[in-house]
Design a protein that fits this description.
Layout: H1 2-19, E1 97-108, E2 116-126, E3 132-141, E4 152-158, E5 162-171, E6 180-186, E7 189-196, E8 216-217
Antiparallel strand pairs: 1-2, 2-5, 3-4, 3-6, 5-8, 6-7
């Protein structure tokens, strides 16, 4: 009886094992494999250079100098003019004058109904490069009275590099020192003016010149 109970119990145990799932072993955790990261590099954009086709023999421009031959004679032979250098360059025309007051003296002018008059002897020189038309000398005095007809004396033209001497006269005060002024004019245009506070007595230095009114080269 006991044997039957044991067998039955064993069968029950065996039947229990077949109906329930067998226990599974404990899982072993392993690290999940990591994927190798991709390395991204900037890929340059490469543009292929254009290709050219070269010929086997490159073209060369050859410049050949021309050698004159007997048949290549110019129609005319050039001529050359040699200009000799000058010492001074040409100058533009200009006007220039100088004046010398040679001296003075006094006299009595009965012809013009005047008493004492003062005479001044002046030399006008044209040292410019142009002629001076209607060249005159004009005399003034600080104590001048009536206008004397010879206070202004002229020549129609005074050529370049020439001179002329004038005798100019003014009515002056008797026995008074006379301060005079002389103008050089051309066509009534004043070119030069000269004052004389004390005009020397020309009679003490050889007297009045003999070439009054005569045009001659500059001395």
């Amino acid at each position: 009886m006991r044997i039957k109970i044991v067998l039955i119990f064993s069968l029950i145990l065996a039947s229990c094992d077949s109906w329930e799932p067998n226990p599974q072993p404990l899982p072993i955790w392993t690290p999940v494999p990591t994927q190798t990261p991709q390395i991204l590099t900037a890929t340059p954009l490469i543009i292929q250079p254009p290709t050219f086709e070269f010929s086997a023999t490159p073209s060369v421009v050859i410049i050949t100098p021309v050698t004159p031959t007997n048949t290549e004679i110019p129609s005319s032979t050039p001529t050359f003019t040699t200009i000799a250098p000058t010492d001074t360059p040409p100058q533009s025309p200009f006007q220039a004058t100088t004046m010398d007051i040679l001296g003075c003296n006094t006299s009595i002018d009965i012809l013009h109904g005047m008493g004492e008059v003062t005479n001044a002897y002046v030399t006008i020189k044209n040292i410019g490069t142009t002629d001076l038309p209607n060249t005159c000398g004009l005399l003034r005095a600080i104590d001048e009275g009536r206008e004397h007809p010879d206070k202004k004396v002229c020549v129609s033209n005074l050529p370049s590099q020439n001179q002329v001497t004038f005798k100019l006269t003014v009515d002056s005060t008797y026995k008074q020192d006379t301060v005079i002024q002389v103008d050089v004019l051309s066509n009534d245009l004043i070119l030069l003016r000269l004052d004389k506070q004390s005009c020397r007595d020309i009679d003490l230095f050889g007297g009045a010149p003999a070439d009054i009114g005569i045009i001659k080269p500059v001395q």
